[in-house]
Amino acid sequence: MFATPRSLYRAFALSEGVTWTLLLGALLIRALFGINPILLTVIGGLHGAVFLGYGVSAALIGVNNRWGLGRTVLAIALAIIPFATVPFEISAERKGRLVGQWRRTKSDDARDSNWFDGLYRWFINRPILLAFVLLVVISAIFATLLYIGPPGGWGQD
Question: Which residues form the DUF3817 domain (predicted)?
Fold first, then answer.
């Protein structure tokens, strides 16, 4: 399904944009007409899950395509701003930063000799296990965020 880093990134970047649109639209409808709060909760939860998935996929692709820490963190941080991932994706596409295959084997690149790249390749070669581990991590983060509640309510107990 996600044969290349580009296909994974584009799927999550598109999903991030769609869920931002749904969330902002639901907020607007709530402000103008009032809607059932459960609808906003469902859309917010969907967007939150896609947001976390985008962050994980951006990190995975940043490692795979050797974006460097700064560019990878920027890709993740831009998901906080509505639709900011769009210009990032356009720029990454133009500059060839989404091109290439998954790094499944060790290359002559000296960076492939460190433990992290070895672990990365081990997981990339086991995509079902990788998907499971990432799903568990995303679920744990999502559950923690649901538990602590929205930022506006922190520390008011």
Answer: 8-93
